[in-house]
Specification:
8 strands; single chain; 14% strand; 8-stranded mixed sheet; Rossmann fold; alpha/beta; 12 helices
Length: 388
């Protein structure tokens, strides 16, 4: 090639390098993505914290919506005292106390432990429901407690016990009737409430958990238990909710192999019940993945001779009632659950004061009828036509 030809066709020394830059960039990006995916996978495999964070976000969003829907029913005559510390050494140990301004002296006390799979939830989520319940003549304490994985079992059981002791010590200050105290809870809160009730009524169980009973047995008038999990051995870890259950129980126990953890076994309160357990109202929706837990808990209490009132629904009840159905008062089943809870409380207190009607717009029961096969004496059997 002559000089003139070379001038007309100059060499391109970097042409080959440019051709390989694209494939190399793809390889680098792919490796980076695989590294990120690997790190994320490792994070979920090595710690329950990522799963717990996602679950908490979902629970908090749902509970915020449910609480907001109850705002129109909140009674104007109920007073709220917020963020009362029940243990000044514990920043998580706060409660909100709702009391009706109706006169009449001391009020029976309902202590509600909110749910959230042990990793989510709090007293704000049940603010309007607590006020609504209080509007029927009760003092209602809605509790905060430490959440997993920041705290592990049995910390919440200890905290709820401390809250009861605090309220009992301050009964005069808050005008509480400590002869009629109820524990209540939903989901994980129901499980915690059941454990605390067993601490109060079973010395052997209290010793196993190393928790001092906060009340005398005679002070605990009953329990309201909604949608809880009471026995690890009958949880379905192989079903569609298995990964969820594994994540939250790993977070709560602090042990990935929680099913083999002897200390965590006491969480299965159903296995430790005695005939001294207090009268209990128990319910769960027919579409709740934990329905079998409530049925088994009720059956065990019945075997022990404990007075138990149940509200269950036929398997084909439609639309199926989900986990935590009781907080949805726009549906007849939710209103029936509130009605039956109030009937149970009133029966246990044998109150002489007249409880006011539910404030706010009247929500007549309406919907399909229930053809119940529930045993005589159950809440559902007593109210077969309530949803007509």
């Amino acid at each position: 090639m002559t000089g003139d030809e070379r001038d007309q066709h100059p060499e391109k020394p970097h042409e080959g390098r440019k051709r390989t830059r694209g494939p190399r960039l793809i390889v680098i990006i792919t490796l980076a993505l695989l590294t990120v995916v690997g790190l994320v996978f490792a994070a979920f495999e090595l710690s329950p914290r990522p799963s717990a964070t996602i679950i908490r976000m979902a629970f908090d969003e749902q509970s915020t919506q449910l609480n907001a829907a109850l705002a129109p029913l909140r009674p104007a005559y109920v007073r709220a005292q917020e963020n009362i510390p029940y243990d000044r050494d514990d920043p998580d140990a706060l409660l909100d106390l709702y009391t009706p301004d109706l006169g009449g002296g001391r009020r029976p006390l309902v202590v509600w432990v909110p749910g959230g799979a042990w990793v989510a939830g709090g007293k704000e989520a049940i603010a309007n429901y607590s006020a609504l319940l209080s509007g029927h003549g009760y003092a209602v304490a809605a509790l905060d407690y430490s959440l997993a994985p920041g705290a592990h079992y049995p910390k919440p059981v200890q905290q709820v016990s401390q809250a009861l002791a605090f309220l009992e010590r301050n009964a005069e200050r808050f005008q509480l009737d400590t002869a009629h105290i109820f524990l209540a809870g939903d989901s994980a809160g129901a499980q915690i409430a059941a454990q605390v009730a067993n601490v109060i009524t079973s010395p052997a169980y209290a010793a196993a958990l190393q928790i001092e009973p906060p009340l005398q047995r005679r002070q605990l008038s009953g329990l309201l238990l909604y949608c809880g999990a009471y026995d690890l051995e009958i949880l379905n870890f192989e079903g569609p909710h298995g990964d969820f259950l594994h994540s939250v129980l790993w977070a709560y126990s602090g042990d990935r192999n929680f099913r083999d953890n002897a200390d965590f076994a006491t969480l299965s309160v159903r296995q430790y019940l005695t005939a001294d357990f207090p009268p209990t109202f128990i319910s769960s929706g027919n579409g709740d993945p934990l329905l079998a837990q409530s049925r088994a808990m009720a059956a065990r209490l019945d075997e022990l001779g404990v007075p138990v009132t149940t509200l269950f629904f036929p398997d084909d009840y439609s639309p199926a009632l989900p986990h935590e159905y009781q907080f949805n008062l726009t549906v007849a089943a939710g209103r029936l659950a509130l009605q039956q809870s109030l009937r149970f409380l009133s029966r246990q207190v044998n109150a002489t004061w007249a409880a006011p009607d539910t404030p706010g717009p009247r929500l007549p029961l309406a919907g399909r009828s229930i053809n119940s096969t529930a045993p005589a004496g159950s809440a559902l059997a007593e109210n077969k036509a309530a949803l007509d």
